[in-house]
């Protein structure tokens, strides 16, 4: 097993997850995760989608996806040449004996050979066609929803994607404050899809705000993201919190986020907004 697959497998087993359980959490097929752990890259879809699967799987397992993406090969290496065993000198007497047998056999073949049979050459089958690709346009009401195709992030609505491989694909839309929408679509021609998102139920009235203590950092999770928080050489937290969770830490701390766009930073009561751009891991020190 390659280093990439071994790291994924050890992390999954350390979390007590089976391939089926991990696949259900990521809304992927278990065969995709099995191919990643076995480094069966030929069984995976096009590289952009496969790298998207790898990034989401790493975040689920609490791993930094960047080192793993660096291990993902662009093409399978050729098999190493086989080395045959050393040759020993061929006995001369045995060589002459075999040569005599060959002469006798060839003479008998010339005497007894049948008439040549006419051979009809059959043209080789035509090469298989590459899979068809089609453009995809997605519109939502309200706009600004994040669009995922088979778990790979494409952009925000209104979206006009470049041509993608046809067939049955899973489309997912996510927008804070609205219920996620997931649907199976069949791509066999250029397609335009329009969806109306349902708002989430309104929470009960909030209690009066509690005064914020000085020297505190609060991280609010508005989406899924892997986090690691350190204070000097001490690791305070590492994992993937639930969406909507709030984590509070005493300053000073160093924070690394796998999806900074989903992490809102509140420093000593001041809302600093998202920690960074979506899908681009970043490390920051506070205060």
From TrEMBL:
Alphabetized InterPro entries for the sequence: Bact_Cytoskel_RodZ, Cro/C1-type_HTH, Lambda_DNA-bd_dom_sf, PEGA, RodZ-like_C
Record's keyword terms, sorted: Membrane, Transmembrane, Transmembrane helix
Transmembrane segments: 92-112
Amino-acid biosynthesis is among the record's keywords: no
Domain (HTH cro/C1-type) ranges: 8-26
Any one Gene Ontology molecular-function term assigned to this protein's record: DNA binding
Keyword Transmembrane helix (UniProt): yes
The protein's name in its UniProt record: Cytoskeleton protein RodZ
Protein encoded by which gene: rodZ
